[in-house]
Design brief:
Order of helices and strands: EEHEHEHEHEHEHEHHEHHHEEEE
Helix content: 25-40%
Largest sheet: 8 strands, parallel
CATH architecture: Alpha-Beta Barrel
CATH topology: TIM Barrel
Number of strands: 13
Strand content: 15-25%
CATH class: Alpha Beta
Radius of gyration: 19 Å
Shape: globular
Bound molecules: (4S)-2,6-dioxohexahydropyrimidine-4-carboxylic acid, zinc ion
CATH superfamily: Metal-dependent hydrolases
């Protein structure tokens, strides 16, 4: 039985760090274990220009050690200037561009309503090799929230990819067997991130026995068959699936509310949880692919040369239940089972 595992230092290909005191509080939780992270641009107001991304990156650097590299993204709007995107990429300021359909999730009011209006940006990105990261949910009120990802694939994503076939796309935080099958059916210029929490919870965890606001995120967790499909994809060794935690801190006040915010904060215990998920699937030898190899390969970046060791212990690993953020406590994701993999850093 494997008791210790050394892997290239992981990267998080989808992370929310926020700003100000919250940034200072949560960024060290990721930087402790991860070498790089793709930083989401859904601040208020959102990060929409290269200059704003550069300034945000500087603020992140004040909250993290030099060993951590934030990889910045721009928030795509109908007013995004293709030339600014390409210049920011060429200058090494941004790594990717994020597409939020307007109204899909936290701070997405400036997102895209009419996808034809971003066509010129997408064409320029395809030309320059800049990946588009999608929040894959339609926002049509007629569409049931549990169907929004599958409908997005048919109505939005597939048409975008047909119109701009050279575009490199990452389907972020996939939650359905439909998304897994779509990725598997497509060429190499399509990848997908999977979160830690979607590998662990299904919709019953949110709703049975009382509503659990700390399990509510978007896209919302689906039924168990979809969770199983995600575990199979993540542990399959298919290089198109890689870790994007979508760790998204909100204070307890904002979560435990009549209209609670979406987001699970998993930065603190993600790697211990993943080791356990992969161990249970008999796929510990594929953990490094998911956390440390497949992402850099998709992004055409080198793998990290530093390593991280995970060690199995007989007694449960302890981790804080909450992180103090300056604006109130942030609850750390509870997987619902004890964790036995300790991260030696
Ligand atoms: O659960 C989520 N939280 N999903 C998102 O897409 C956004 C995120 C956030 O920023 O809180
Ligand atoms: Zn996110």
């Amino acid at each position: 039985m494997i008791q210790s595992l050394t892997i290239p230092r992981p990267d998080d290909w989808h992370l929310h760090l926020r700003d100000g005191a919250m940034l200072q509080a949560v960024a060290p939780e990721t930087a402790r274990h991860f070498a790089r992270a793709i930083i989401m641009p859904n601040l208020v107001p959102p990060v929409v220009t290269g200059a704003q991304a550069e300034a945000y990156r500087a603020r992140i650097r004040t909250a993290t050690p030099d060993s951590f590299t934030p990889l910045m993204t721009l928030y795509l709007t109908e007013a995004t200037d293709p030339a600014d995107v390409v210049a920011a990429h060429r200058a090494g300021i941004i790594t990717a561009v994020k597409l939020y359909p307007a109204g899909a999730t936290t701070n997405s009011a400036s997102g895209v309503r009419d996808f034809d209006r971003v066509r010129a940006v997408l064409d320029a990105m395809a030309e320059a090799g800049i990946p588009l990261l999608t929040h894959g949910e339609v926002t049509d009120p007629e569409i049931d929230i549990f169907d929004r990802e599958a409908v997005f694939i048919d109505r939005v994503l597939d048409p975008i990819r047909r119109a701009t076939p050279g575009l490199r796309v990452v389907m972020e935080h996939i939650t359905t067997a439909d998304a897994v099958a779509y990725v598997q059916s497509q060429p190499e210029n399509l990848g997908a991130t999977i979160t830690t929490h979607h590998l662990v919870i299904n919709r019953n965890h949110i709703l049975v026995g009382g509503i659990k606001p700390h399990y509510y995120c978007l896209p919302v967790a689906k039924r168990e068959t979809h969770r199983v499909a995600l575990v199979q994809a993540a542990t399959s060794g298919d290089a198109r699936f890689f870790l994007g935690t979508d760790s998204a801190p909100h204070t307890d006040d904002a979560k435990e509310s009549a209209c609670g915010c979406a987001g699970c904060f998993t930065a603190t215990n993600t790697l211990s949880i993943l080791a356990q998920v992969f161990e249970e699937a008999g796929a510990l030898d594929r953990l490094a692919g998911f956390t440390s190899r497949n992402g850099p390969a998709f992004y055409r970046l080198p793998e990290n040369t530093t390593t991280l060791t995970l060690q199995k212990s007989d007694t449960p690993v302890s981790y804080p239940a909450k992180i103090e953020s300056g604006a109130g406590p942030v609850t750390v994701f509870d997987p619902g089972f004890p964790l036995y993999w300790r991260i030696l850093d």
